[in-house]
Amino acid sequence: MAFNELTDGLSEPVRKAWERSLTSGRAALSRRSVLRAAALTAGAGSLAACGIPPARTVNGTGDSTANAAKDLSESEREVNFSNWPLYIDTDENDKEKHGTLEAFTAATGIKVKYTEDVNDNVEFFGKVKPQLAAGQDTGRDLMVLTDWMAARMIRLGWAQKLNQANVTTAITTIDSRFRAPDWDPGRLYSYPWAGIQVVVAYNRKATKGKEVTSVAQLLEDPDLKGRVTFLSEMRDSVGITLLDMGKDPAKFTADDYGAAVARLQKAVDNKQIRRFTGNDYGQELSSGDIAACVAWGGDLIQLRADNPDIEFVIPEKGFVSSTDNLLIPAKAQHKTNAEKLIDFYYQPKIAAQLTAGIGFVSAVTGMPEELAAVDPDSAANPLVVPTPEMAAKAHVFRTLTEAEESDFEEKFSKLIGA
């Protein structure tokens, strides 16, 4: 299906948001240097526009009336796992080897076909939705998708409810912060693979030693005028602005959203904000071409390693966080094996091995102690292992209705000139 066919049926602002993510947002970027896509994807309306009916649901829960297939897990000791590139631990001498997957096979006898084919949420959704909408197997038993897309999959009835008996380790070791997102309360369908953080960063040399500690300073400090960037991802830039205004991104109203956009607009009009970016802020921040910005925590680990002048700050009023999540798609042929793999990654020792390999936040309790034994530097990095004080400042951006999605994206598109 062509891109213009995929976007048929979308409102203009949502279509633009999709395009923006593919060209300048997280969707356009490599895994190691940045995070995942956080653009909007086609909803039920666009499915119909492509001649694909939306999945049926039961009692509005998003649970399909026929989303399960015969489980071949017992007779076929395998699991097909789709993930993002460079988003798993690898052997330094052989990039095709992944220690955690080999440990899983050794422990269970289940072989893993591991494919790095989730280049961004939008593209991947377009790849699998014809099969899912037609009630067909995608050839995948497990996939990793960002929270807003995971919510869409559940709502459409395209994710299978987990057998709780097969994920007992995950149930007991998932950190309480990740246990009950509004789009999957109780984690009945999903478990986090890794967490994402949106923080403030600055170049100490470019600010001449001046600290930058808040979003308010980014928006108002005359010493930073014209040398500030925000992110082109709506949830990240508006979310952290809402926090600075004392509003919870998980509970904000339309008026709150409008006020946050107006505040950003004022900074654009005053030329305080230079522009809204994808991860290209990294090069500008490192060179000192910009002095400060809103940044993704995953970027800053490498940026700080390359340039000791780069600093990051957790604003006093909080920061925005999100997750990438493990899901079992409808009609998966090896559901039990996939559940066993999910559960395996919730062993603290295995979670530590994964975290050491990717440098993103883990949702597994007990992981930090295990990580300290294998990678003390990562264990001491609050971007990898948030301190309790930092974790208490994490906030999620609430799930939007389709009407809100269109309205909010239209306002944000006008703000950033998209």
TrEMBL record:
Keywords for this protein: Periplasm, Signal, Transport
UniProt cross-references to Pfam families, sorted A to Z: SBP_bac_8
UniProt superkingdom: Bacteria
Primary location group: periplasm
Subcellular location: Periplasm
Protein's UniProt name: Spermidine/putrescine ABC transporter substrate-binding protein
